[in-house]
C-alpha cells in the first residue's frame, strides 16, 4: 500500500530545499515528470487491488494537484526572494575582461590619417628599403649636394651584384615620385611610413621614426591652398584655437619651402616641413608645370605623439615598456 | 654664423627691437637660433647719473654718490673711485646685479651692504666689475645720450645673432648676406663696403702665375700680390669685430682674410709670397706620400685625391680647409699672395672628413657650394683692406684662372607666376624693390615679365619659382592668403594588405593584447636562432653602417625583438602577458630591393593568478594562444586550419601547428622551444602566433554578406562518444557539423578513466540542430542523430556512451 502521506511529506521537504530554478526543474522531473515518482504511483493504480484503486487514485490525483500548486508557490517564493537579492561585498574586485592597447604611435598615426582622409586624401605606403635614386637624386638631391647633409643615411651593404645603391629611406618623400609614376592629377595623398636616420638617440631624437608625407597636385594650386590645408589639419589635430605660423625653410624638392610651427604652451614648435612641389619634379612626372602645381609636406608622428600625450622622451616609444603602453588602453 | 649687430649696422639700418629683428629674419628663412649679448650678464645694470656727491662721514677716501637712474627716488651708494664727479653718466648696478668681483675676478651678486656704517644701495661700476677690461682705477664714465635707466647692454654691449643657415644659402654665412635680408625686410638698402685701392704700374702677372691642374676640384683661383706690407696687429675696430663674431685676432693680414670671409662668406688665404718656390701657385691633387704641416701644427699624410695648393715643388695648403705652416704670414713677411678661390664642395668634404674634426670656418663655407663669381668681389675687398691696414702696394690686376666660368643665366619670371603660386599680386615696383634690396639684379620686361639674374653670393636663383620664393618670404608667409582645397577628391588606391594589418591590430587589441613597435634591426645570430628553417632561412639584408654594430641585419622575422620585449616585460606581466606586433620583414634579393613582407606576431605566456572569486591560478598555455587565433578568425571572418606539428625549428614540434587557409599555409602557432625562450631570458613558457598578412590578404572572403539567422527554434542534444585516445576532437566535431541540420557543435567534456575502457576517451558534444525554413520535429532530429552516429562509427570507430 502506497503511503501517500509519507510521499507528500518527502516531496514537500525536498521542494522546500530547492533554492533555484534548476533544482525546481529537477524536483519536477523527480516527482511529476514522465518517469516521476508520483507519476509512477498514478500509473500503478490499475495494478492495485480493486478496493484500493479509487482511494489511492483519488488521493494521488489530489496530491498531484497539491504538488503542482506547491511548486508554483515555491517558484513564486524564489522569484520574490531573488528580487530582494542577497548581500555581497561590492568592493571586491570585478572579473575584468582584458583590455588591450594600440601603440601610441599607431594611435597618433591613425588620428592623423583620419584627419587627412576627412579632407579627401588617399593613404598609401612605400618600401622602407629605397633606392638612392628615389630617396635623393630624383628629389633633386644629387650626390655631393650640400643638402644631403640634412639626412644622415643608413646604407644597405653592397651585395656585389652591381645593382643600384640602396638605403633605409630617410624620409617618406620618395613616395612622391613613386606615386606620380602611376597616378595623374588630381593627386591628394598621404604616405605614412617608418624612416631611418644615422643619428645618435637622445630625448628628442630617435634613429627610427614614423613620418607622414603628403602630396597634392592639381591645376593651379597655390601656397594659399598649402596654408589652408595644413592649417585645417592642425586645427583638427590640436583644436580650433591653435595658433600657427609659416616660416621660410629649405627642402630641395619644394620651392617655395616652408616650415609650419604651432604655439604649444606658449612656445613655437616646428611640426612639419612643407612647400610648393618643385616645378622640375612636376615636369619629371610628365606634367606641365605651368598648368599643374601643388604642394608637399612631411611630419614626424613621434613629435605629434609627444605633444599629444605629454611624453618628454622620444625613446619611450620603442622601449615598449608595458607600464607605458598600458596607459593607452581604450584610446583611439 | 654669429652676426654681431654693431657690425651688421655698418651695412644696413633697421628700426625695430632686437627681438623683432630676430623674429623677422627667422620667418624669412635665416633662422636665428639664439640672441646672445656680449659683455656678460648685465641684468639690473642701467645708465645712471651722479646727481650729488657727499663726503663719507667715517672715511676720508670714500664718498657718497647720489645716483639718479630713472627711478622715482635716487639711491645713495658708497664709492671710493677718485674720478667720481657730479654730473657724470655712469653704469649703475642695482642690488641683485651680477658683477665681476675685482679681487677674485669671479662673478658675484651685488648685495645691499654697509660700508663704514653707511648703507650702500648699489654700485657705480668700473670696467673690471662689468667684465669689460682689467681697468679698475676708476669708474667707467659713459658717453651716451641714452635715457637714465636704459639697460647698460643696450648702450655698451653688443648683441650677436646666432644664425643657422639652410644648405642653399651660403650667403647667410656672412654679415653682408644677413644685411641684405634686413634690407629686404625693411625695404631699405645695403651700404656696400669699399673695395678700391691703388695699384702699382707693374702687373701681378709679372709676379706670379696660377696653374689649375684639376679644374673640376677648383673652378676658379684668383691671386693678388701686395708688396711692401708691414705685418702687425690689425686696427682695433677690426679686432673688435672679429672677437665679437667669435674669431681670434692674429695679425693684420690674417685678420683681413678672416674679416672678409665673415663679411662676404668667401674664405681667403694669404701666403708669404717669398716663401713660395718660384713664387707661383699650382692647384693639383696631392702626390703619393706627399706630406704637409698645417697652420695648427698638425702634420698630414695626404691621399692622392686630396686637393692641394702647391708652389713649384710642394703642397703649401690643403685647399679650402687650412693653410700650410711653411708659407704662413709671419712678422717678417713683406709680400703677400692673396688667394681667393673656389673649390668643389665634394672634394672639400672628402678631405675635411679625412683630415679634420668638424672642419674649419673655410671648409664649412665651401661645403655649401659657393658661387665662383663671389671670389673676385671678396679678393678686391681684401686687397683694399690689406693696403689700408698693412700698407704696401698691390700689383696691377688679378691673376684670375677661371676654368669653371659659366654664363650666369637670366631667369625670366612671368608676373602671373607670382600670382599663380602665392595668390597675391604685388606691384612691379614692390617686386623690384624686394629683389634689389636682396642685391638681385632685375629688369622689367614689359608687358608682363621680370628678368632676374643670380647674384655672385648666391647659387639658388635658377628657375622662376626661386624668385617667387624670394618675394613670398620677404612679404612674409604669414601675410599670404589661405584657402581650402578646391576640386575633385581623387579615388583612393585599394591596399588590402595595409587594411588587413589595421584590422588585425583592432581585433588583437580587442582581445586584450598590447601592440608593440620594435626596431627593425637584429643580429644575424638572433635570426638563425629563431628561424623556422633549421638550415638556411631567407637571406637577410645587411646594413653598411648600422646604428649598433652588432645589429647589422634587417629582420627576416618579428621574433627576436618581440621575444626581447616579452622578456623585458615579464616582471610587469601580472595576469599573463599578451603582446603583438604588425610589421615588415625583409628578405634580401641580389641587386634588387628586398621583398618586404607584412607580418603579425603575437606572444602569449605567463601566469594568470588565482582570483578572490575562486578561479584557480593557471599558466597560460597553447590553448590561450589558440583562442587568440580562433577569435582572430572570427574577427576576420576566415577559417584557419591547423595542421599539427609545425615544421618550425623554433617551435616545439608536439605543441605547434601550421596555420592554413583553404590548404594554403599562412603562419604558425605553437610553443617556443624552451631553450630558445631561455636564451632571451624568458622564464615562462611562451606561445607564438605568427601570420603573414601578405599571404592571408588574398585568401580572405571579399564579400561582406552575412547569412540571416533562422527564425525557427533549435533542438539541442548532447552526444557522448567513446573513441580511441588519439582521435582528434576537431575531426569528430567537423564530422558532426557536416550534417545538414547541425547548426553548431560545442565540445564540452573530455573524460579518460575508470568508467571507460583503457586506451579510450570520452568526448561530449552539445549539438544544435536547426533548419532555416521550419521547426524540426523529434523525428527529424532523431534521423539526423542516427546518421551522424553511423558516420562516426564507421569513420572513427566511435561508440555512444551509456546508450
User: How large is the share of residues in beta strands of chain B?
Assistant: 25-35%
Based on Cα principal axes, name the global outline of chain A.
rod-shaped
The major beta sheet of chain B can be summarized as: 7 strands, mixed
Q: Largest interface, counted with CB-CB under 8 A?
A: A-B, 92 and 92 residues
Secondary structure tally: strands of chain B: 43
Which radius of gyration of chain B do the C-alpha atoms yield? 42 Å
- Kindly report how far apart the N and C termini of chain B lie: 95 Å
Task: Give the tally of β-strands of chain A.
Answer: 9
Q: What's the total helix number of chain A?
A: 12
Q: Hey, roughly how much beta strand do the residues of chain A contain? A: 15-25%
- What oligomeric state best describes the polypeptide chains here? heterodimer
Structural class of chain A: alpha+beta
What strand line-up does the widest sheet of chain A have?
A: 1-4-5-9-8-7-6
Terminal CA distance of chain A: 76 Å
Low-pLDDT segments, ≥5 res of chain A: none
Describe the model.
The complex is a heterodimer of chains A (332) and B (803). With 332 residues, chain A is of the alpha+beta class. Chain A contains twelve helices and nine strands. In chain A, β7 (254-264) and β8 form a beta hairpin. Chain A starts with a helix and ends in a 7-residue tail after the last helix. Chain B has 803 residues and is an alpha+beta fold. Helices cover 25% and strands 29% of the residues of chain B. In chain B, the strands form twelve sheets. Chain B has a seven-stranded mixed beta sheet with strand order 29-32-33-39-38-37-36. In chain B, strands 13, 15, 16, 23, 24 and 25 form a six-stranded mixed beta sheet that branches. In chain B, β18 and β19 (299-301) form a beta hairpin. At the A-B interface, α5, β1, β2, β4 and β5 of A face α7, α10, α12, α13 and β29 of B.
Brief account:
The complex is a heterodimer of chains A (332) and B (803). With 332 residues, chain A is an alpha+beta fold. Chain A contains 12 helices and 9 strands.
